[in-house]
Write a structure and sequence with these properties.
With 274 residues, this protein is an alpha/beta fold. 37% of the residues lie in helices and 14% in strands.
């Protein structure tokens, strides 16, 4: 039986962010994830988690910026990370250090390191070398703090130019970096759009032990998992068959909310699994 984490960046957006913890717990979630924690004091986030008996299982390192103001500007601008971008290594390292600080304070075991959008005209060899070197450095720092770091292939329809798009590429990068605490964040929504054959991708990569987190959403519009072309009950049975014991992040935009009961009204798909 799968364990589901509510993504508080995409779900419960009818509520202010700090009220989403209570809403997720009220719907039966035992864990949450979100994109960026940096706009809130660590103490307030931790209070929300503890008050509602929730575990934080994942968040992103900053998408850019060297300080609080720079990070806020990068988030507002929709930046997608710096890990692969030559010349922004100091920015990447500052973001990783801050993310580890938050992960320790919030008892979060995983940090997603966004690859970034490849600069126009960049040398592919230099981009890959920058990415590998940055990931190797971040893996060492995270290991010292007892944390895993993750990389995520993202489809080029949602984020044109994003460096990492395919599962095989992600696992090639893992092999080159060679760090045991660097793993893949396997979002089945992105995987279906770019590659398809999702069940076979699960069968290929889960047994390697290098998939650190799974996320889901309906395809193609990123709504509830029971909307669209992917048949998640079957995929959940594959996860059970393969013995997956990690969390499944619900990173989708509810379409059944709005004035009709909010995010909670679209959680019928989840009831059999709680």
């Amino acid at each position: 039986m799968q364990k589901f984490a509510a993504n508080l960046t995409m779900m419960y957006t009818e509520l202010p962010f700090l009220q989403r913890f209570e809403a997720a717990a009220g719907d039966g979630f035992k864990a949450v994830e979100f994109a960026f924690p940096y706009a809130w004091p660590k103490e307030e986030l931790l209070d929300g988690l503890k008050a509602h008996h929730l575990q934080l299982v994942l968040f992103n390192a900053p998408p850019g910026g060297m300080d609080a103001e720079g990070i806020a500007q990068a988030v507002e601008a929709g930046d997608k990370g710096t890990a692969c971008i030559p010349g922004r290594e100091r920015e990447f390292r500052a973001g990783v250090a801050l993310a580890i600080d938050f992960a320790l304070a919030l008892n979060c075991p995983r940090i997603h390191l966004m690859a970034g959008i490849v600069p126009r005209g960049a040398d592919p060899i230099q981009v890959r070398a920058t990415y590998v070197n940055n990931l190797r450095w971040a893996s060492i720092k995270a290991a010292q703090a007892g944390r895993d770091v993750l990389i995520e292939p993202i489809n080029t329809r949602d984020i044109p130019g994003f460096y990492l798009n395919r599962q095989d590429h992600a696992h090639e990068i893992l092999a080159e970096v060679g760090s045991p605490n660097l793993k893949v964040q396997m979002d089945l929504y992105h995987c279906q759009i770019v590659e398809g054959d999702v069940a076979m991708k699960l069968r290929k990569y889960l047994p390697t032990g290098k998939v650190g987190h799974i996320q889901i959403a309906g395809v193609p519009q990123r709504h509830e998992p029971d909307v669209g072309e992917l048949h998640y009950p079957y995929l959940f049975s594959v996860l059970d068959e393969l013995g997956y014991e990690g969390w499944v992040g619900c990173e989708y935009r509810p379409q059944r909310g709005g004035q009709m009961g909010g995010t909670s009204s679209g959680l019928g798909w989840l009831r059999p699994y709680l």
